Amino acid sequence: MHYRHIPLPLFLLVGGCGVLIGCSQEQAAIPVADTAPVVDVAALTARVAELERKAERLKDMNAIKRLQRSYGYYVDNAMWDEVIDLFSDDATVEIALDGVYIGKDSIRRYLYALSGGQPGLPAGTINEHMQLQPVIDVAPDGNTAQGRWRALIMSGVWGKSATWGEGPYENTYVKDNGIWKIKSTHWYETLLVPYAGGWAAVREDLHNGKFVSDNVPPDAPPTEQYEVWPGAYLPPYHYKNPVTGQ
Amino acid sequence: MYKKQQNILSTISFYCFMFYTGAGIAAEDASLTALSDRVVALSREVQLLEDQNAIEILQRTYGFYMDKALWTQVADLFTDDGTLEIGPSGVFVGKVRVKDYLLSLGQEGPQEGRLIDQMQLQPVIHIANDGNNAKGRWRSLVMAGQHQGQAWWGSVIYENEYRKEGGVWKIARLHGYNIFYTDYAKGWAESAVASIGPDQPLAPDLPSTTEHTSYPEQFFVPFHYQNPVTGTAVDVAAAIPDLTPIESDILEQTLSDLNTRLERLNDVQSIERLQHVYGYYLDKQQWDTLANLVADDGTIEIAQRGIYAGKKRVRDNLNLYGEPGVHHGVLHNHIQLQPVIHVDADGRTAHARARALSMLGTYGRAGVWGASVYENEYVKENGIWKFKHDHLYTTMFTTYNEGWAAAPRAAPGVSKDNPPDLPPSVVYEAFPKTHIPPFHYPHPVTKVEVRTP
Question: Which pTM was predicted?
Answer without folding.
Answer: 0.91
